[in-house]
């Protein structure tokens, strides 16, 4: 019985490792594609909507945390850029643009909130900004985080212990 349990545990660890490697490979492909896109625009006069940082790493967070970050983008065109839509690849991510039209030389701010409720492990999330710019019709912003799961059994047993130690608890 113990060998079977260990075998299942090892298979589970291997499948989790494979999934993490696949997610990291996907993120690397997104980053390479984004860098190639920006490198090809270096030669043009107008660069469209350009972000200082198109990637944010939240590091490690606990399950249930809501994480926040902002991205600053600059209009490098000689004409205004309209932000048509801001969408994410997951319902756990909300992204909002502070303005719909970005004048030439002006800055726009995209606020990203990532809710880690009911998640664990490595997460890579993207936000897609649809614009009317011919040079940058879609801009991709990325965020990653490693979410540590909260053991609900330990949490409930701690609460029970706290309740037992509370001398001010109402007695019925």
Description:
The protein has 172 residues and is α+β, with helices and mostly antiparallel strands. The chain has a single domain, classed as Immunoglobulins (Immunoglobulin-like, Sandwich), CATH 2.60.40.10. It is elongated and about 70 Å long. The termini are far apart.
The CATH homology group name: Immunoglobulins
CATH architecture: Sandwich
Q: Unreliable segments (pLDDT under 50, ≥5 consecutive)? A: 155-159
What is the count of β-strands? 9
Please state the overall shape, judged from the principal axes of the Cα atoms: elongated
The percentage helix is: 25-40%
CATH class label: Mainly Beta
Mean pLDDT: 81
The number of helices is 2
Terminal Cα span: 46 Å
The major pleated sheet works out as: 5 strands, mixed
Strand content: 35-45%
> In the CATH scheme, what's the topology name?
Immunoglobulin-like
Provide the succession of SSEs.
Answer: HEEEEEEEEEH
Q: Write down the Rg.
A: 22 Å
Oligomeric composition of the shown chains:
single chain
Trace the largest sheet across and list its strands: 2-9-8-4-6
Topology:
Layout: H1 2-41, E1 49-51, E2 55-62, E3 66-75, E4 81-88, E5 93-97, E6 101-102, E7 107-115, E8 121-131, E9 138-148, H2 152-165
Parallel strand pairs: 2-9
Antiparallel strand pairs: 1-3, 3-7, 4-6, 4-8, 5-7, 8-9
Summary?
With 172 residues, the chain is of the alpha+beta class.
Which key features would you list for this structure?
172 residues, Immunoglobulin-like, five-stranded mixed beta sheet, four-stranded antiparallel beta sheet
């Amino acid at each position: 019985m113990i060998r079977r349990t260990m075998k299942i545990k090892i298979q589970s660890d291997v499948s989790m490792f494979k999934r993490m490697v696949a997610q990291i490979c996907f993120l690397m492909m997104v980053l390479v594609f984004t860098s190639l896109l920006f490198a090809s625009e270096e030669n043009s006069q107008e660069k469209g909507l350009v972000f200082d940082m198109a990637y944010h790493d939240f590091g490690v967070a606990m399950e249930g945390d809501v994480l926040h970050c902002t991205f600053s983008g600059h209009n490098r065109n000689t004409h205004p850029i309209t932000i048509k839509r801001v969408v994410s690849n997951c319902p756990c991510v909300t992204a909002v643009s502070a303005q719909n039209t970005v004048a030439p030389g002006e800055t726009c701010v995209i606020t990203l909130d990532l809710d880690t409720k009911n998640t664990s492990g490595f997460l890579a999330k993207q936000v897609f900004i649809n614009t009317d710019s011919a040079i940058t019709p879609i801009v991709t912003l990325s965020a990653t985080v490693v979410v540590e799961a909260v053991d609900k059994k330990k949490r409930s047993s701690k609460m029970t212990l706290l309740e037992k130690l509370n001398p001010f608890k109402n007695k019925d």
